[in-house]
Amino acid sequence: EAKAKGRNTFHFYSQELDAAANERLFIENELRIALKAKQFKLHYQPQVNSQTLEVIGYEALIRWYHPEKGYIPPDKFIHIAEATGMIVELGEWVIEEACRFSMQLQTLGQAGNMSINLSARQFKDDRLISTLSDVLERTQMPPHLLHLELTESMLMGDVEAAITQLHEIKKLGVALSIDDFGTGYSSLSYLKRFPVDMLKVDRSFVQDIPEDQNDMEITAAIIAMAQKLKLQVVAEGVETQEQMEFLQKNNCFIVQGYFYSPPIKASEVHSFYQSLQHQS
Ligand code: C2E
Ligand code: MG
Ligand code: MG
Ligand code: MG
């Protein structure tokens, strides 16, 4: 009985592992094709000043539409692209595409920031600085409008190397944000040594406001600390009026989240901008 059950359990787990391994292999193979086949797109999520209803910028978020599997979310493939090294090429495409789009917006009179997510491998790659300066040159993107988002964990391994790389990026005139702030392990003593411009309060702290008292305290503390360190602060994942008002009361005016807009297609960005201007 027990033996049979044990065998079945093993069988069950190994099937699950096979399925996971197969999916991984599938994604790995398809990723190689996807760039050439133009299966990737960028969507853009507005970052809005809730006081003035100005759009201060957008975050570019990658979208993969596979011809057979349909939409594959970034959480399903970024880590695989990272593990295989494909992320460097993919990331380069993201930077260039987002800068080109930002230049189009600037032509329409919309001179906001463009935030791009970097992965650990991209950040550590020797080619990052030359890639960035090449793209800035090719697209004529004003460097200060380009914001690179990094996570705490990317900075914490070899802290000295990270600080050197951050300074190299800053020399290009590009701005830096710490994404998902509060979820990683960065020590506050390092934070002031990182030449960053902005903190993004992680969505996990925002989502249970106003029900979760602890999350409210943490959010307020992060905002206060950012201000003391003279860093800009953006709240991620703001979905409700109450959350927006709580953030306002605590001096965080830049918000990103479904309350104003989900990530949208490039073709929808200008009309979103105009609709917000009509409200303000
Ligand atoms: P992230 O950089 O923290 O991006 C925010 C995520 O939260 C996005 O998920 C966005 O669609 C989602 N989001 C925004 N507002 C709300 C809200 O109000 N409620 C909820 N429930 N969700 C909201 P997405 O687009 O699936 O991206 C997931 C993660 O994948 C990103 O997290 C980022 O770490 C990574 N990623 C996305 N695009 C890229 C890229 O081009 N390069 C790299 N390296 N990573 C990327
Ligand atoms: Mg981000
Ligand atoms: Mg985030
Ligand atoms: Mg994230």
Textual characterization of the structure:
This protein has 280 residues and is α/β, with parallel strands linked by helices. Helices cover 53% and strands 20% of the residues. The chain is built from twelve helices and ten strands. The chain has an eight-stranded mixed barrel with strand order 1-2-4-5-6-7-8-9, surrounded by four helices. α2 crosses α3. One magnesium ion binds at residues 179-180.
Overall shape: globular
Question: Residue share in helices?
Answer: 40-55%
Structural class category: alpha/beta
Q: From the alpha carbons, calculate the radius of gyration and give it in angstroms.
A: 21 Å
In which order are the strands of the major sheet placed? 1-2-4-5-6-7-8-9
User: How would you sum up the major sheet?
Assistant: 8 strands, mixed, barrel
Cα-to-Cα separation, first versus last residue: 71 Å
Count of β-strands = 10
